[in-house]
Every structure is written in C-alpha cells, then in structure tokens.
Amino acid sequence: MMMTTRRKALARLRPPPKTNLADWMESEIRLPAAGNAVPGRIRLFSFQRGIADAISDDKITRVSVVKAARTGYTTLLIGMVASFIANDPSPILVVVPTEDDARTLTTGTLEPVFAESPAIAGLLSNPEPGRVNRNTMLSRRFAGGSLKVVSAKAPRNLRALTVRILAIDEADGMESGSEGSPIALAERRTQTFPNRKIIMGSTPVHEDTSHVLKAYATSDKRIFEIKCPHCGEWHEVRWADIHWPEGEPEKAYWACPSCGGIVEHEQKDALVAAGRWRITAPQVKGHAGFRLSALISPVENASWGALAAEYVIAKDDPTLMQVFVNTVLGEGWSHDGDGIDETALQARAEPFGIEMLPEPVLAITAGVDVGVDRVEVSFVGWDRADQAYVLGHSVIYGSPDDTETWRQVDDQLKLRFPHPYGGSLKIDAVAVDSGFAMEKVYAFCFPRTARRIYATKGDGGRRPAIQKSGSRAKGGWLWIVGVDGLKTHLFGRLQRGTSVRFSDTLPASFYEQLVAERDVVRMVRGQPTHRFERIPGRRAEALDCVVYAFAIRQIVTVNWDAREEALRNPALDIPPTPRPRVIASAWMNGHS
Q1: CA 264 → CA 114, 225, 237, 260, distances in Å?
Q2: Residue 434: what are its φ and ψ, rounded to 5°?
Q3: Can you tell me the mean pLDDT for 361-384?
Q4: Residue 430 near residue 552 (C-beta atoms within 8 A)
C-alpha cells in the first residue's frame, strides 16, 4: 500500500508529455452550435496560436493579454483549461468579476464545450476515483486536480486555496475590497508552486487604472505585425493608419506607415494569417505580454469598413467613444478624454446665487445627501427650457442620529428665496438619499410629504430616472432613482458646457466632488456595459446631491406662465405646484 502511494506521488512529480496547446485545441476541442457563429472543430487565428504557444511554454510563468472584443480570447481560455485538465491535471483557479460571470462561464461555456468534445467529455463531472463526489456548479474535482471558478467580489472565495494554474478574466472589471486587490489575493494562491502559470486577460478600461495595461507594461510587450505587400516592411495595424473616402467608411483601408501603399480589406485575412508576434522588450524573461485590437480580427463584423462605421457613430459621443476605444482598439480610455475638468467648470461660474436668483429661474429643487457626520444640500434652479442653475450648496455638520441636525436641515428646506421679479420662490421638491441612516431619513421625510420632501434611494443599471417603489416602506413611499442614467445625462450636459450654469458662491471642493466619478465600460457576459466608478481619493457628496436634485425635477410640473405672473405680483403668491407625477424619459433624452 505504501509503495502504491509513493508511485502515485512520483508520477505526479514527473513532467507530463509535452502537448502543443494550439495543435491539441484544433484536434480535440469542438464548439457547440449554441452561442457560436462557427460551431465544430476550432480553427485558431495566427495571433491566437502565438498566445497559446506562450501559455504552453515552460519558461513562461506569466501571460498578460490586452484584448479587444472579437479576438477570440474566450476560446483560448476554454482551450487552456481543457488542456490542463486533460493533459496536465493541476489545481486550477479561474477568477472573473462577478458571480453571474462565474455561472455563465461554467454552465454557458465550459460545460457545453466539454460535452461536445469527445476527448474531454465527462472530465468535469467525474471525481477522482475513491473520493466522494463533492462537485458543485463552480467547483469540480477530477483525477489529479480541481477546477474552481470564482467571483472576485467575494474575498472569501480566494481564501484557503492552493493552485498551480491561475486564469484571471476581465481583470479591469475587478475592484479592490476590504481585503485589498482580488488579483493580488488570487496570485498569492499560486506561491507554493515553482511551476505555476498566471494568465491574465482583459479588455482595458481606464488608462490610468487598468490592471491589464499595468501587467502588459511589465511584460516583454509583444505586438502583432503584418507585412506590407508593397514595401515588405512589418507594422502593427493601428487606427491612425485606417482611412476612408469622405462619407464612405465602408470603404476603409489600411495605409502602410512606411510607403503609404494602400491595402484593401480583402487582403487583410491573408496578411494576418502570415503575420507575426514581435517582442519589443526582450530584456524581460518569463512574462509574455500580448496586445490585440479588433483591427486584425478576421471575423466578418470586424472588417475595416465595419469598424470605421462604428467610429463614425461613436466619435461625437464620449460614452460611445470609450466603448470604441476599449472594445475595438483594445486601448485604455484616458481620463483626460472625459472632457470634464473641475477647474474649467469653476471658471464658468457666474454672479448669481441662492440669495440672488437669475431672472430666468422659475423653479427650485434640492438634493440631500446624508453622511456619517453631516447632511449636504444642493439647490438647483430651473428655467422654462429646463436649463439647470446650481444656485448653492449647504453643509450641515452633525450626526443624522441627532434631532438638531434634522432641525437645521428642515430650516434650510423651508427657506424662500427673493426673485428679481419681486416675489420669492420656495423649493418645489426635495429628494433625500436614504442609502445611509435609512430610518432617520424615513422619519424626517414621511411626515413632510405634503411639502414634497421625499425619501429616495439610488439604484444602478438601466432604470427610469425616478419612480415610486411598488410598496410602502414603514408608512411612506420610497422613490427609486436611476443614478446611472442621471449621471450620464448630467455629465453630457457638463461636457457641452451650456446647459448647466454655476453660482460663483460655490467652493472649489464642490467642483472636485461634482466630477468625482467617471463613466467606465465593463464587459458583462461579453457585452460592454456602462457603470460609474469613484476616482480614488475623491469625495462625491456634491455629485450625489445634484443627481438627486435632477431626479426630483422630473416629478415637478410647473405652470410657467402662472409662476412668472405670481413672481411679478407678489400679492398673488405662487400657486401650488400640482401633485408630483413621473415625467416620461423624453425629458432626459431631449436634454442629454
């Protein structure tokens, strides 16, 4: 019995028979019909083979891939996992951004490929002989190893694991948590293996914070080149060298940087097939880095004409342009390209304020953010054209558990503001964020509904700017605010520079907080998805307050003529504002 155990241990120490990953994938892996444009046996592109060769090279410990969409990276990832399971059984860990990504990768990609490929069929469902079957959806055992697919969002997933093979997919979709970087935590799981392999692939997001760009910068920095058929020089295909006749992006072509020779799209496939990877940092050993753009992808929807047409649509919209830069060019989006600079915003300040209203302002809304030691309020005025005027920002210091703090907030919201026409304006509606100190916010807002002071809660994703919740909460109604759509709307206004105006009473910190987040693109289930993320080290109370003031504007209906008449004749007073109703999203679409 002892001899048998020893033989097994020695067998595991012996290096497995050398298998060329690319050749093995093409001979053994089958793609199912569901979810694949070209089902059946894999045929790797030339640039994919270069990456596969690096993964199977014993001298290379790390492989970092900066990738665009439509370049077949997921196929490589699945083939790599399958090859290790079949040919070199090891403890394998795959880390993806979210739990949904983990389930999708396992049940939507891995399992169908294993079921379709006779050489590996059953390997994910058969535990090692003699062991209890403890397989779960995201954790599988097989003879000689294991596979775990985990979410980076839960640090506990990365504890108590020891793995030899680590694959990190969509690294730029991963955020640091209370225990630090999930990427660093995952890499520590490989430290006991001298023959470890760490493969990181991701579409880059922001240039200054990208995990994959940082990894590539420490690699041997390989670029894929094609040979010009006119002069014989080798070049990486870059966007600066893609041209097309005015108004005809579908006729896009590549112009050689050396000789200017024109290469039509019809020549691309042959040139890419004969292309090569060139190492630009040969002094780096053991870390292979690859940079891939959709410009070299042979798939039909990545023709130069198709990509040029996408550019024409995106070029005037920063949010669409970021998608293009990230997912087509495989490059990080520069924060400078966001077009919003706090000093430039402050330079636009004008001599008006809450105590000296601009004449066009005929309505006021307020957004309230509640923090640990303060409550902050932004006052935003509105004219007939729905131009926004940030009139002032107030900070009430004190705990939300303190009754005095809320008394001061209430005093702020009761104020009336003198108008140049002679009368005065009160606040039409108020949105108070209940994300912090929820019970205190409810206790403050629900008794003041008649004054149109509403408890609100922000929610991300694609949802209306504001809508009443489906049920009452502790005796009152909660209003749900679609913060992502509103931030996109607000930042679009700020970039245009004309539809949001600022009081010169606002401090510099207000502008810093207003642009404290940025719109990023994350790949979710293979699709680019927008989300807003905080710039490290920034506070964002002003942004939150303004977003809530914008949100509550949508449930305020104003009779502009009657409002102006009341201001010009103070004795008439301002007629009551009608009960709030949700205005259709055309308001945002028309002013975004």
Answers
A1: 39, 16, 13, 12
A2: -100, 15
A3: 96
A4: yes
Buried b (16+ CB within 10 A) or exposed e, 175-192: eeeeeebbbebbbebbee
Amino acid at 269: D
Handedness of CA 468, 471, 474, 476 (dihedral sign): positive
Residue type, 507: P
**CA separation, residue 236 to residues 99, 222, 258 (Å):** 37, 10, 12
CA distance 301 to 68: 13
pLDDT of residue 315: 79
Q: Are 251 and 305 in contact (CB under 8 A)?
A: yes
Q: Which of 338, 332, 337, 282 is nearest to 67 (CA)?
A: 332
3-class secondary structure, 435: coil
DSSP 146-157: EEEEEETT-GGG
Place of tokens 């920095």: 221
d(CA 523, CA 171): 10
Q: Quick one: how far is CA 205 from the chain centroid?
A: 7
What tokens were used for 216?
Answer: 């590539």
pLDDT in tens, 404-443: 999 999 999 999 999 999 999 999 999 999 999 999 999 9
What are the chain's domains? 342-453+500-515+539-591 (3.30.420)
Is the model's pLDDT at 233 over the cut of 90?
Answer: yes
Angle subtended at Cα 213 by Cα 208 and Cα 215, rounded to the nearest 5 degrees: 120
| 576: exposed, middle or buried (Cβ count in 10 Å: 0-12, 13-18, 19+) | exposed
For the record, the structure tokens of 351 come out as 């001599």
DSSP 576: P
Contact 287/62 with Cβ under 8 angstroms?
yes
Helix (H) or strand (E) holding 312: helix 304-314
Query: Which single residue is written with the structure tokens 């042959």?
Result: 270
pTM: 0.62
Amino acid letter, residue 280: T
CA 197 to CA 201: how far, in whole Å? 13
Which pLDDT belongs to residue 587? 39
Where b means 16+ CB within 10 Å and e means fewer, 105-121 reads bbeebbbbbbebbeebe
The end-to-end CA distance of the chain, in Å, is 74
pLDDT at position 135 is: 60
Reported in sequence order, the residue ranges of 102-177 that DSSP labels E, i.e. its strands, are 139-142, 145-151, 165-169
- For residue range 466-509, list pLDDT tens digits in order: 988 877 877 788 999 999 888 888 887 887 666 899 999 999 99
Helices and strands in the chain, H and E counts? 19, 27
**Position 144, amino acid:** G
Per-residue 3-state assignment (H helix, E strand, C coil) for 370-381: ECCCEEEEEEEE
